[in-house]
Amino acid sequence: DTGVSQNPRHKITKRGQNVTFRCDPISEHNRLYWYRQTLGQGPEFLTYFQNEAQLEKSRLLSDRFSAERPKGSFSTLEIQRTEQGDSAMYLCASSRSGVLGGQYFGPGTRLTVT
Amino acid sequence: DQQVKQNSPSLSVQEGRISILNCDYTNSMFDYFLWYKKYPAEGPTFLISISSIKDKNEDGRFTVFLNKSAKHLSLHIVPSQPGDSAVYFCAASRGQLRQGGSEKLVFGKGTKLTVNP
User: Fold this and answer.
1) What integer pLDDT is reported at residue B81 of this predicted model?
2) Quick one: DSSP state of residue A85?
3) How far is A17 from chain B (nearest CA, A)?
């Protein structure tokens, strides 16, 4: 299967710790997106890349959040000094150019901050 | 400010009948619309999309209708099958990157569809 993969699938951490998530997109896709989803809500946009360039960041992405896509392939999302409000499902998606072809989502990383 | 609204949290239909899922949006700058379905413990799965220059797009059992003047779109599933039971999300985008737009998707809160055998 050559879909989008995310690791880890689950992460439990204590408040104040740093966490890092990884996303491996579909290989021929040059766009990569990060979203966050909480219970009862739709996914909320965080940031996206075209190749290695970060093109847009949401206001939701405070200075504790940083994302990279160093070689235009996989991406990492780091959260520093985690807070309980960071508990959510973090979703990664990838796409070729254009919107109409859809963004293809991975299974997500569920973060629980205790 | 919820720019994409799915006002029905849930919908229940009988197998074989039509399912109609509705979505309203407030931002007139949106010009691409997509539907996703999501099963528990999985990421959303892309179903179908439509550009604002069209009013209908069909793919197998799925048809999306767009009414730009009413800022409303709907997803029709005919015939509905028990495997269609999932949460359905409507999403919108302000345009293509190469046209100076943004390809980020703005999602509604979802509608949980249950198809009863």
Assistant:
1) 97
2) G
3) 25
Mutate to test the interface with B, among A99, A104, A105, A110 (most CBs of B within 10 A): A99
Distance CA A92, CA A89 (A): 10
pLDDT tens, position by position, B71-116: 999 999 999 999 999 999 999 998 766 666 778 999 999 999 999 9
Q: How far is CA B41 from the centre of its chain?
A: 20
Provide φ and ψ at B46, rounded to 5°. -65, 135
Closest residue on chain B to A110 (Cα) = B41
Tens digit of each residue's pLDDT (9 = 90 or more) over A26-36: 998 999 999 99
Compare B97 and A4 and report the one with higher pLDDT: A4
Chain B neighbors of A48, CB-CB under 8 A: 103-104
Which residue do the tokens 């599933």 mark?
Answer: B77
Question: What distance in Å separates residue B85's CA from the closest CA in chain A?
Answer: 17
The angle at the Cα of B52, spanning B71 to B27, to the nearest 5 degrees, equals 40
**pLDDT for res B99:** 65
The pLDDT tens digits for A49-83 are 999 999 999 987 889 999 999 988 999 999 999 99
Token pair 């998707």 is found at B105
Alpha-carbon distance of A21 to A11, in angstroms, equals 9
Residues of B with CB under 8 A from a CB of A: 4, 32, 34, 36, 41-46, 49-51, 89, 91, 93, 95-98, 102-110
**Cα–Cα distance measured from residue A47 to residue A54, given in angstroms and rounded to the nearest whole number:** 7
Task: Flag whether residue A99 sits within 8 Å of chain B, measured between CB atoms.
Answer: yes
